[in-house]
Design brief:
382 residues; alpha/beta; Immunoglobulin-like; Rossmann fold; eight-stranded mixed sheet; six-stranded antiparallel sheet; 8 helices; 25% strand; disordered N terminus
C-alpha cells in the first residue's frame, strides 16, 4: 500500500466521494471503487486510472505506434483518462506510466507476464481464430519440474486439447513452442492466445489434437536468478543450457506424465525471435528428436551462425532429408531480423535443406506471431 500511495494511486482528494467516519483514511471510498478500465465501445477504447496525486500519466501499449505514448488527461475527481478512437481487433499488452513508474491497470484483472514484469491485457474480438468461441476448450496448466541442468525449480505451461481430461485422447503428438527474449513461459498462453487458437483450429478440423508445451526460454544463473546475458542465444547447442534442459528434463517430464507419442514423427518445435534461434539450434542439431521445425522472425547472429554451421553442417548434410517440415517466416516490416533470417535460409539451402520460406505482412510483434501459429498448426502431424 505504501508503494501505491507514493505513486498517487490511492490518495483521495477531499470532497470527491462521500466518506465514512468509521473507516480509516486508506479504506475511505474513492472514484476508483466504481472505475471501469478499459471500456470498449463502438471501436473506441477508453483507458482510465485513479491517481489523484500524480502529475503525469502516460499510456504505453501495443495498440499504439511503435515507440509512441498516449498522454492521459486528469479529471477533477483524480481519474486520468485517454480514449483511442479506433483500435483494430486483436490482443494488446499495455501499462500506465504514473510519474514515470510503470504499472499495470489496477482495474483490469486480465494480465500477461514477462520474465520480470506484468502488463495488462486488452482483447477485442474480431480475429476469429483468436477469439473465445462456442467450441470445446482445452486446458492450460502451469507445470513445475526439477531439472538436472539448473539449481532451482523450473516452470512450463502445458496445453492439453478438449477431451484429454476425460481420457478420450491417447498417444498425442507434441508441439514444443518457445517464446522470445524478455518474455516467459506464460507469454504464449496470454499475449499469444495459443490455447484459443488451438481450440478453434481443432474444433473445425483444421488441426489435429495435440499437446503444446511452452517452456521458459530464459535460464537462471548459478544463483538461481534470471541470467542477463541470454545464454540460450548461442550457436553451439551442445553448450546451450536451454537445449540441455529440453533434452534432459522437459521432454522426459512430458513423456512421463502425459499421454503422448514418443516417436520423433510426433514431435515438432517452433519459436519466435530468441525462441526461433533456440528452435533452429535444437531442431537442426537433434533431427533424431524432431521431425518438424518452425522459426518465426528469427535467425542466428553472424558469429553464432558460423559456429553452428562449422559444428553441425555435416550432420545436417547427412540427416536433413529426415525433416518433414522446415517452416520459416518473418514480416516485411520487421526492423530486427531480415538480414539474419535471410542468411539462415541461405545456410539451410547450402546444406540441401528445403525450407518453406515466406516474407509476410507484419513486423516483430505478437499480432504477427499469433497469425503464424494459426497458419503452422494445421500443417503439423499430417
Amino acid at each position: 500500500m505504501v508503494g501505491l500511495v507514493a505513486l498517487g494511486l490511492t490518495t483521495q482528494a477531499a470532497g470527491q466521494v462521500p466518506g465514512n467516519a468509521d473507516l480509516p483514511a486508506h479504506l475511505q471510498p474513492t472514484p476508483n471503487d466504481r472505475l471501469e478500465s478499459p471500456v470498449v465501445e463502438n471501436g473506441q477504447v477508453t483507458f482510465s486510472i485513479y491517481a489523484p496525486s500524480a502529475t503525469t500519466v502516460m499510456l504505453d501499449g501495443e495498440m499504439l505506434p511503435f515507440g509512441k505514448r498516449q498522454p492521459l488527461e486528469r479529471g477533477a475527481d483524480g481519474v486520468w483518462k485517454a480514449t483511442l478512437p479506433s483500435v483494430a481487433p486483436g490482443t494488446y499488452r499495455y501499462t500506465f506510466a504514473v510519474d514515470g513508474a510503470r504499472v499495470a491497470d489496477p482495474r483490469n484483472p486480465s494480465v500477461s507476464g514477462s520474465q520480470t514484469s506484468v502488463a495488462s491485457l486488452l482483447h477485442i474480438d474480431g480475429v476469429a481464430v483468436e477469439d473465445v468461441r462456442d467450441v470445446p476448450h482445452g486446458s492450460i496448466a502451469a507445470r513445475w519440474y526439477r531439472s538436472p541442468v539448473f539449481p532451482t525449480p523450473r516452470r512450463m505451461h502445458v496445453y492439453t486439447p478438449p477431451g484429454y481430461a476425460m481420457g478420450d485422447l491417447k498417444s498425442l503428438p507434441v508441439l514444443y513452442l518457445f517464446h522470445g527474449g524478455g518474455d516467459s513461459d506464460e507469454s504464449w498462453s496470454s499475449a499469444g492466445r495459443a490455447g484459443f487458437i488451438l481450440d478453434n483450429l481443432i474444433a473445425t478440423g483444421r488441426a489435429k489434437p495435440m499437446i503444446v508445451v511452452m517452456p521458459a526460454g530464459h535460464v537462471p544463473g548459478s544463483d538461481g536468478l534470471p541470467a542477463v546475458n541470454l545464454p540460450g542465444m548461442t550457436g553451439d547447442p551442445a553448450k546451450d543450457p536451454f537445449v540441455l534442459d529440453m533434452v534432459e528434463a522437459i521432454i522426459p517430464t512430458i513423456e512421463a506424465n502425459y499421454r503422448v507419442s514418443k516417436r520423433r514423427e510426433d514431435r515438432a518445435i517452433a519459436g519466435l525471435s530468441m525462441g526461433g534461434v533456440q528452435s533452429a539450434n535444437l531442431g537442426l542439431s537433434r533431427i533424431d528428436l524432431f521431425s518438424q521445425v518452425a522459426i518465426f522472425s528469427s535467425g542466428w547472429f553472424p558469429p553464432m551462425r558460423a559456429a553452428f554451421e562449422q559444428r553441425y553442417g555435416g550432420e545436417i548434410d547427412r540427416n536433413g532429408e529426415r525433416l518433414k517440415l522446415l517452416w520459416v517466416r518473418w514480416g516485411k516490416d520487421d526492423p530486427l531480423v531480415p538480414d539474419n533470417a535471410k542468411a539462415m535460409v541461405d545456410l539451410m539451402r547450402r546444406h540441401k535443406l528445403k525450407p518453406d520460406v515466406e516474407v509476410t505482412q507484419g513486423t516483430h510483434n505478437w499480432e504477427t506471431w499469433r497469425r503464424y501459429l494459426a497458419q503452422l498448426a494445421p500443417l503439423l502431424f499430417q
